Amino acid sequence: MERLLPQIQSPEQLKALDKKQLPQLARELREQIVTTVAANGGHLGSSLGVVELTIALHRVFSSPADKILWDVGHQAYAHKLLTGRQEQFPTLRQWQGLSGFPKRKESVHDVFDVGHSSTSVSAALGMAVAGDILGADDRIVAVIGDGSLTAGMAFEALNHAGHLKQKMVVILNDNEMSISRNVGALSSFMSRKMTSDTFIRFKKETETLLNYIPGIGRDLVGIAKRAEESLKSFMTPGMLFEGFGFDYFGPLDGHNLEDLMETLKNAAQIKGPVLLHILTKKGKGYEPAEKNPAKFHGIGPFDPQTGEVPAPAAATPPSYTEVFGRTLVDLAATDQRIVAITAAMAEGTGLKPFSQTYPQRFYDVGIAEQHAVTFAAGLAARGLRPVVAIYSTFMQRAFDQVLHDVCLQNLPVTLALDRGGLVGADGPTHHGAFDLSFLRSIPNLIVAAPRDEYQLQRLMKTALSVDGPFAYRYPRGKGTGTLLPEEIEPVAIGQSELLREGPDGLLIAIGSMVQQALAAAEQLATEGIDLGVLDARFIKPLDRDRMIALAENAPFVMTVEENVLQGGFGSAVLEMFSDVGLQVPVIRIGIPDRFIEQGSQAQLYDSLGLNAEHMATRIRKLVKLEERHQSAG
Ligand SMILES: Cc1ncc(C[n+]2csc(CCOP(=O)(O)OP(=O)(O)O)c2C)c(N)n1
Ligand SMILES: CC(=O)[C@@H](O)[C@H](O)COP(=O)(O)O
Ligand SMILES: [Mg+2]
Q1: Known binding positions
Q2: Which of 195, 208, 436, 460 is most buried, by CB atoms within 10 Å?
């Protein structure tokens, strides 16, 4: 049979297909998505789940004049394939390849850059309002998942759109899944289907209640209670959205193309805000992903025939995430005050074992980073020791909660920031490049970063012993394979560790970059350049006296961090030297003042000079310059 997908290079060509050809196109889209994600890794289940929706949207609406906004954007692979990007699709998520998320600079069909969740309704509303102001005759559609709907920002936008009575279409893609099973009262409410059972019960109970009415003196409280319960079971998701001022359609089978197209056509005619609620299956059409949607939410390369991920080499060290998760379980065994919190990332943050060992002390709050932090503040205010594990990039959302609700009151909340630094293929939306800068600006907060897994354990234990807020950040990926002793020794607050002594220059590094600095120093030692290497361990407070003493005798200081240079660790060191009037040449190595694209972590480090080889090259030049100065003098 002739393949259809290669013939569709634009939404216009999709519109020209016969309706009967669409199921075949859906199959081909799924095959292409599975093949590419199996090779490159990526977000599989969500994209497979919206194949029919994507076809229907591009048949009914006219992108790019009409604007389609994808929430998070991890489900937009079929959209990319139908909007002229088939040729580049094999480069998905690779260095200089197609982004895994919608990107305005990639295509006119990608109308809003995204990667963090729950922004689609706000952005769509802005675009719809702008369209009115500009007199544009276009239609705006936001597609948001049930997981992303749990974030406050989505409700802020619904509230505003309903108030404005703004013409726009919001599609709620309900697969009852976030990364893992969706959680929360809203999710339970949404999944309550209007079954015929509900109707029958409602009818029966109403009749019974009516029978009671002539008999004055019966149990009125009981009657009222039963009436309320009947009403509650009669409440539907539609009522919720209608309460927000939206016209509600659904729930609708999101894999039924005919129904989808018909309903979308009708929805597009309505003058005010419309919410179309569709039910889909995450991973649809690829059995391993249907069976295990959490595993196939975001996955590395795998065998497309079996869905199996290649086993890691036997000697592969555990990831920082795994060490964090396991250590928290151990620490919680002897400290009943420990409570763990995740914002819809139990797997990603390594908290799954904790949730299984201590279900009563574990909270998945949904995609609600701001709430997670203030919830932790509440727990801490009553004497508990909450540990909030959030990816560095998503913690950006909760800056004010960290500042206002935790640090202002000096509450003992531990902030565990996973994915600190460059994360790789997810790219600029997800790099944890800013945390050291924004956290170090907050009073009372201790900020640290470990150089290896054992140092992470030490910081974890230390954080729980401090009577105030404490943040540590650690990178994505494997640890160094360092030995993890039985007994974890805490660290003195603000204490650095001198790993190497040498008169020719001083490297002060933090977190993941300590290993690179050490490797550079060791390489240079073989060439007769003898450097000191200090693991700062803390960004705040800095180990002031030791750093000053070492720097006073060094021909130069090089600071190294996997964080933006603006306001980061190197800046902190410079400020301190300046405050005491210490004059020493300081070279800062870190992430430059621009958004960093996707690629493997190794490619990114290399491109930014954040590895031992590049550091060694810079130091060689510096030392030669220094020698030239000396001989000239
Ligand atoms: C602010 C923020 N927090 C967390 C995430 C991580 N994340 C990406 S997708 C996802 C689940 C989204 O669920 P849903 O919107 O229902 O989409 P589905 O994957 O089910 O299609 C989460 C938690 C994120 N991208 N942004
Ligand atoms: C889309 C999204 O935000 C998450 O799925 C994220 O991509 C997970 O990243 P990790 O693969 O680092 O857990
Ligand atoms: Mg979902």
Answers
A1: 74, 115-117, 146-148, 175, 286, 369
A2: 436
